[in-house]
Specification:
Elements: H1 2-20, H2 37-50, H3 60-72, H4 75-92, E1 98-101, E2 106-109, H5 123-145, H6 149-175, H7 181-185, H8 193-214, H9 220-237, H10 240-261, H11 267-291, H12 296-302, H13 307-331, H14 341-349, H15 368-404, H16 416-419, H17 422-437, H18 447-459
Antiparallel strand pairs: 1-2
Length: 469
């Protein structure tokens, strides 16, 4: 009995620790104290090899052999190891200094210890990024080869509840004027904390719909924390644009949920869910508009008026940073300037009159693709793209099986969208919204969001059929 519990939930407990550890860092600070992730990764890797999930009819020895075989044939494993190796070399070949050349009257960064090898400017930042990428690879491999569907569902529900609880605490601290929460709620900085809560809001809606469809009991804690908690966090901490985007898609998902659950629950239950949702969401809206008219959400949304001026300022800021990132990348096109190298090189790549547009949060290029290319070069950006493709392959393959084979259950007569698991529908939407935001912001520079994004992308295939009917 003990071994069964350990093999079923032990791994996801360790993965949850990896994903939740950076949640306490509600910022995109350059060095966010992620070194303890190495310890979490070591323990999770040890558990992966010793106590993986055991399928029905398997022994523990069979499960170990299955996991090793899965890792050996999983392209994500090799891509992840190559990416971690690249960042490790950058870390070892780091330690550049800013020097002044009196003859040319310019400042520039010194050469790395090994001129031809991948390098990083600051070793501490490189170690932090190495810990983050190692954690992402470990999470991806573990969820792909060693964890069952029930454990993945439990993991996602735990993470959605945890993010909602953090959101509630963060909003309470922001309303009391505690820093940095008050500044984040007022739109200070260019952080993507609100995107993190919006991401789990989308997943929370899907997890709630799926849980209600499977069980007649309404998962109240999942509704309150994963739904309302993350909603509060998104409203208070997201950028004005993302507040609008996540709010619109949340309404759409609520309509989707009503249609999805219609043939699965009674009319009275549908009415209770509708009234409960309307009461809670309406209560939040009324409180923000009438009870607390000077709240950070209203002030933040008011700052974008007039829209033309706000959009012009946003475009100018982003274009300067993107051009600077491309300029820096051209100096080291193959391996880039190392983890967080944009922070050090941007001052040398922009004109003096443009400095005001990059001075605030200068570590962010506000375009994740451009920044990854700048800091990891063609090799590193190619490995990142290959890792994403490897994560998408089983999801696309299983979705294609569901499309081709309707099956013979009660859901077989429904359209493809409503035969998909709500976890997959909302998960794909959340993943895509983060990708779209990454063209004009830097959501993936937030460690907690990058880990959550990897976790969800690796877990979603389990909610689709493994083979055709």
């Amino acid at each position: 009995m003990v071994q069964r519990l350990l093999t079923k939930y032990g791994l996801i407990a360790h993965i949850a620790c990896i994903c939740l550890y950076p949640v306490g860092v509600l910022s995109q600070s350059r060095v966010s104290g992620l070194v303890p992730l190495f310890w979490f990764v070591f323990v999770a890797a040890e558990w992966l090899l010793l106590l993986p999930s055991v399928k029905r009819g398997e022994t523990l020895a069979d499960a170990r052999r299955r996991v090793l075989h899965g890792m050996a044939w999983d392209p994500f494993s090799y891509i992840g190891v190559a990416l971690v190796a690249l960042v490790a070399v950058q870390c070892l070949n780091s330690g550049l200094e800013l020097v002044y050349l009196p003859d040319a009257d310019v400042w520039q960064l010194s050469d790395p210890p090994v001129a031809w090898a991948p390098f990083a400017v600051e070793r501490c930042a490189a170690i932090t990024q190495l810990a983050l990428f190692t954690a992402c690879v470990t999470v991806g491999i573990t969820l792909r080869v060693a964890v069952g569907k029930a454990a993945k569902r439990a993991l996602l529900q735990l993470l959605a509840r945890a993010s909602g609880a953090v959101a509630v605490v963060g909003v309470a601290l922001a309303l009391q004027g505690c820093e940095p929460y008050a500044a984040l709620a007022a739109g200070g900085g260019l952080t993507s904390v609100g995107t993190f809560f919006g991401f789990w809001l989308m997943l929370g809606i899907g997890l709630f719909i799926e849980a209600r469809a499977r069980d007649s009991h309404t998962p109240r804690l999942l509704f309150l924390l994963a739904g309302l908690g993350n909603l509060l966090g998104m409203l208070f901490f997201a950028s004005p644009l993302m507040v609008v985007v996540f709010s619109v898609f949340s309404v759409i998902l609520l309509l989707y949920g009503a249609i999805y659950l219609a043939p699965l629950v009674s009319k009275s239950v549908q009415l209770k869910l509708f009234v409960g949702t309307l009461f809670c969401v309406g209560g939040i809206a009324v409180s923000l508009v009438y009870l607390f008219p000077q709240n950070p959400v209203s002030a933040k949304l008011g700052s974008v008026w007039p829209v033309d001026a706000y959009w012009d300022a946003l475009s100018a800021r982003n274009s300067v940073r993107a051009e600077a990132a491309v300029t820096v990348w051209q100096q080291h096109p193959w391996t880039g300037v190392g983890a967080d190298g944009f922070y050090h090189y941007v001052a040398l790549a922009v004109k003096q009159e443009q400095w005001g547009l990059v001075e605030q949060d200068r570590a962010l290029a506000l375009s994740d693709g451009t920044q990854f290319l700048c800091e990891y070069g063609v090799f590193g950006a190619g490995l990142l793209l290959a890792a994403v493709i490897a994560l998408l392959i089983p999801l696309c393959y299983r979705a294609r099986l569901l499309w081709q084979h309707k099956g013979h259950d009660t859901m077989s007569d429904r359209t493809f969208l409503f035969r998909l698991s709500p976890v997959v529908t909302t998960g794909v939407l959340a993943v895509l919204l983060c990708c779209l935001e990454s063209f004009m912001a830097s959501p993936f520079r937030m460690p907690a969001l990058l880990l959550s994004w990897t976790c969800v992308l690796a877990a979603m295939p389990a909610f689709l059929p493994e083979r055709g009917a």
